[in-house]
Amino acid sequence: xIDTIIPKAMPGPDMYKLFNQMDEDNIILSFKxxxxxxxxxxxxxxxxxxxxxxxDDQQRKKKFYHILVESLQNIFHHMEGVSSVEKGSLDKExxxxxxxxxxxxxxxxxxxxxxxxxxxxxxxxxxKINTLKPDELREYxxxxxxxxxxxxxxxxxxxxxxxxxxxxxxxxxxxxxVEKGIHFFTFSVSIR
Amino acid sequence: MDPLIIEESIKTPTISFDAGSGVLEIKGxxxxxxxxxxxxxxxxxxxxxxxxxxxxxxxxxxxxxxNTSSSKCLLDLFRKxxxxxxxxxxxxxxxxxxxxxxxxxxxxxxxxxxLVKIPFELIKVEG
Lengths: 192, 127
Known about the structure:
CATH class of chain B: Alpha Beta
Largest sheet of chain B: 6 strands, mixed
Strand content of chain A: 15-25%
Number of strands of chain B: 6
Number of helices of chain A: 7
CATH topology of chain A: Heat Shock Protein 90
Largest interface: A-B, 32 and 26 residues
Oligomer: heterodimer
CATH architecture of chain B: 2-Layer Sandwich
CATH topology of chain B: Transcription Regulator spoIIAA
Distance between the termini of chain B: 35 Å
Helix content of chain B: 25-40%
Number of helices of chain B: 3
Order of helices and strands of chain B: EEEHEHEHE
Shape of chain B: globular
Order of helices and strands of chain A: HHEHHEEHHHEE
């Protein structure tokens, strides 16, 4: 595990290469670690300032900000459930990345741990969302909004439906078993 | 009854509810992780207000962003007002403001309009 890029990296050409790689990938935000309310406040603050400086389509910026908030809060709400699982310190950790290119728009990628027994229900939900047309998504959202109760941590269970609806894109996801009882859930959504 | 005034923060909106005039205003962003913590005092105030409301009540919603956690609390606010309107204690209307370039916010107003039986006016604001 020592043989990773940061401990080995020295000031020099490799770092310039790394910079260029990040630039080519159009990464505007990248984070790995534990997700707290305070962290989220800082992220919103940074992204708002950045969006103010970007001369992008106003509606696309708004959609992006909205979906960013929703996707990060999804991870935040989700992590409580995993923390009871024995997983060293990793259980509270997650990752997210945001890419932006004027031509292709924004792309949000997230990754977090989850309990394996919760995978089938989430997978079914995401697959269902992806089969729905825009007007069906609207109906599904309204039906859920009218009937759900907030979880103890304030989750409404509407995040994925909302992201699919606002982005107008299919949600992309993958569940990877990492050890007994634990999966790593990776997710992405594009805002074009 | 004292008005309810809450200053906005990075994740929560300005609340300005005035019992005397019946004008209840919410403005800004509502993206707290747990919206119940924020909306609890708002619900409490509204419960008191609706026991003896002004003749007419206008709920002015001027939100820039709200998350799905808040969407549930907003629905609960609308439902409380719907009950007040149904009981005949106050004539209730909702003024839902959205910026001209924000279709999503207009649709959100439409969502609530479909879920509660109080008159909604969707008002376009030039950004």
